[in-house]
Amino acid sequence: MSQPVLEARAVSKHFAAGRSTVRAVEDATLALLPGRIVALVGESGSGKTTLARLLARFYAPTSGEIRLHGEAVQGKPREYYRAVQLIFQDPFGSLNPLHRVRYNLERAVKLHHAVRSKADLDEKVVELIERVSLAESYLDKFPHELSGGQRQRVVIARALAVEPKVLLGDEPISMLDVSIRLEMLNLLERLRAEDGLALLYITHDIASARYLCDDIVVMYAGRMVEGGPKEDVIADPLHPYTQLLIDSSPDPERGDRNNLFDAEDLGEPPSLIDPPSGCRFHPRCPVAMDICRTQAPPRTELTDGRWTHCWLQEKK
Amino acid sequence: MLKSWKVRIGLSILTFFVLLAVFGPVVGGDPRANDIQAISQAPSFQHLFGTTQFGQDVLAQTIAGARGSMLVGILAAVIGTLIAILVGVPAGYFGGAVDNGLNFLTNLFLVMPVLPLILIVAGYVQGTGPFVIALIIGLFGWSGGARTLRAQALSLSSRDFVLAMRMVGEPHRRLIFCEVLPHLTGWISAMFLHGMIGGVMAEAGLAFLGITDSGSISWGTMIQAAQQQSAVLRGLWWWFVPPGLCIALIGTAATLVNFGVDEVSNPKLRMARRSVVVRTRKVAEA
Ligand SMILES: Nc1ncnc2c1ncn2[C@@H]1O[C@H](COP(=O)(O)OP(=O)(O)OP(=O)(O)O)[C@@H](O)[C@H]1O
Ligand code: SF4
Ligand SMILES: [Mg+2]
User: Fold this and answer.
1) Measured in Å, how far apart are chain A's first and last C-alpha atoms?
2) What domain count does chain B have?
3) 3-state DSSP call for residue B134?
4) pTM for the whole thing?
5) Which of A242, B55, B92, B167 is the most exposed place for a label (fewest CB within 10 A)?
6) Which of B162, B163, B281 faces A175 most closely, judged by CB atoms?
7) Domain that holds residue B224
8) Torsion of CA B34, B40, B45, B47, to 10 degrees
9) Residues B223, B104: contact at Cβ < 8 Å?
10) Residue A120: inside a domain, yes or no?
């Protein structure tokens, strides 16, 4: 297997909130490989965006390190952003309402390519917009004239101008119309295939992860609970939380039974200011043991690249 | 913004005075000409606004005074707004040590007793023509604006579109001037108007206190001259009412415009609207 492009090693992020601390991400480890899509799945507030922003270096990790091409990153992020780009959750917020689409793409092209003439610049810009399947006529529109999906395409085109190695997508489709979500996923899939991009696809819905990714990583309350190739994880989840998550997600193949479950089944996520001791899932875990209440489960490596943080697996 | 009647009236008044300041002196008579035949005369057909103690035409003086007052007002506003932008926006954008330094400076000017200082500086500087007066007013009047801009720039610079352009590799200079600053135009124009009005008022005050060169004509120096000749006691109301009224009108115009600008550029209102949109979308999806 090839070397990871981008890695998070045991990163944690704590936010100061008044006198207390929000432990948004704890001990997260993740590796992104060229040409592979990793899905990061977790419910709202589980720390997905925080992890994405750590990887995008908007925050410095409280502990742990981020590694790019095997080297710990430090200093100014300018060089870093030649390799790593983030697609934000909200396509309405990530384009300046005062600039036309063309401006966004031209700036990105000028900053990253030696353009010799206006014609050269135009050519590159048109190339970019066509790569995300938008017509040239969209170049002269303002963001408010575009739909959410079109904006998200422009955002992706702008990120592609940089020719990054890694694309981090923070719920890139969650704010889009259901009808165009599939198209967006196909676009991401195409980029992975054409450019060999390493992709992190963040989502709270396991169905889209199932559609797109190669590997799946599940987060719960700021901690990673399980990961591995998607077929294995979905077919045979090992962690009780993953089981709950998969059971409660609608699956057409399993028929109506799932309609009985809905998001409420997952219960309230725990407070991240004062998270449960030991395994953060223990208050809701049907098979919790004594040790779960006191000690956080370590990472257990299993066969086929699977791993989990659960005392059940560690004990075996 | 132009739909609001308040803004329209306010802007009309201001435009009127700006036009008066620019073209008035061409049309109006010589404000310094002394008509010995008409001294301290009440308004008449010959002198629509009456004449002063020295036989000068009050209408001509008011028109010339518009130029003097507006010049100081606009200059002071330009200087004050520029400093406010250069101090406030980088402070909010960069945060950290830059912010601490610039914020300290702002607070220093904010708590300084401005009027006594202006008096001292104005007294110290040789020759207090309109340019010097405007400079002094601008230099002492930017801190409130800088604080507002700092707060706005602070919240803007953590918005996704700024972060996204930073990731694309845009340098700070362009992020500040091309991404953040254009969103502050509402605030800046409001600030500029404020500065202008404040400048007109401050000039009048300084003139009244006798700090401005009495050689230059402004509404302030007119009132000051009237005061010196005890126009109030002698009932020469036409001498000081026109310039006073002009100043009051400018003040009213400012208030009217501010109402409108507030509605447009109050980010709380705008933000509220945006979050409502997002929330409804989420609900609709669920
Ligand atoms: N800048 C911050 N300061 C303080 N707390 C924060 C900050 N950013 C995030 N948090 C907290 O960290 C936790 C994780 O938030 P995060 O946005 O990473 O969740 P998420 O998994 O992306 O959720 P969603 O699916 O709703 O986007 C939340 O409890 C949130 O309140
Ligand atoms: S560690 Fe214990 S509480 Fe946590 S998921 Fe496993 S069995 Fe449940
Ligand atoms: Mg999020």
Assistant:
1) 28
2) 1
3) helix
4) 0.82
5) B55
6) B281
7) 5-285
8) 40
9) no
10) yes
The two structure tokens encoding residue B226: 């009237």
Closest by Cα among A231, B168, B220, A66 to B178: B168
How many domains are contained in chain A? 1
**Structural domain includes residue A316:** no
Residue A29, C-beta contacts closer than 8 angstroms, at least 6 positions apart: A7, A8, A9, A10, A11, A224, A299
As beta bridge partners, residue A22 has A15
Q: In angstroms, rounded to a whole number, what is the distance separating the alpha carbons of residues A129 and A136?
A: 7
| Structural domain range at position A258 | 6-308
Average pLDDT score, chain B: 82
User: Is A165 touching ligand 2 by the criterion CB < 6 Å?
Assistant: no
- Return the pLDDT at A260: 41
Backbone angles phi, psi at B33, to 5 degrees: -65, 130
Domain with residue B225: its CATH number is 1.10.3720.10
Nearest-atom index, ligand 1, CA of A222: 14
Tokens of B83: 């400093």
Residue B123 host element (H or E): helix B114-124
CA-to-CA distance for A105 and B61, rounded, in angstroms? Answer: 57
Neighbours of A153 (CB within 10 A): 24
A23 — alpha (psi -120 to 50), left (phi > 0) or beta? beta
pLDDT band at B280 (very low <50, low <70, confident <90, very high): low
Distance A170 CA to ligand 3 centre (A): 7
pLDDT of residue A67: 93
- For residue A265, pLDDT beyond 90: no
Please name the residues between 75 and 104 in chain A that touch chain B, using a CB distance below 8 Å.
Answer: 78, 81-82, 85-86, 88, 90, 92-99, 104
In a domain, A1, yes or no: no
Structure tokens at B234: 């002698």
**Closest approach of A85 to chain B, Cα-based (Å):** 7
Tokens of A241: 């939380």
Residue for token pair 């991240």: A272
Nearest by CB: A81 against B162, B167, B182: B167
C-alpha distance from residue A29 to each of A8, A88, A170, A203 (Å): 5, 21, 17, 17
**What residues pair up with A68 in beta bridges, in sequence order?**
A6, A71
Token representation of residue A146 = 């575009």
H/E element holding B193?
A: helix B185-208
Q: Encoding tokens for residue B130?
A: 């309109």
Q: Tell me the ipTM for this assembly.
A: 0.86
Query: Looking at residue A101, which CATH number applies to its domain?
Result: 3.40.50.300
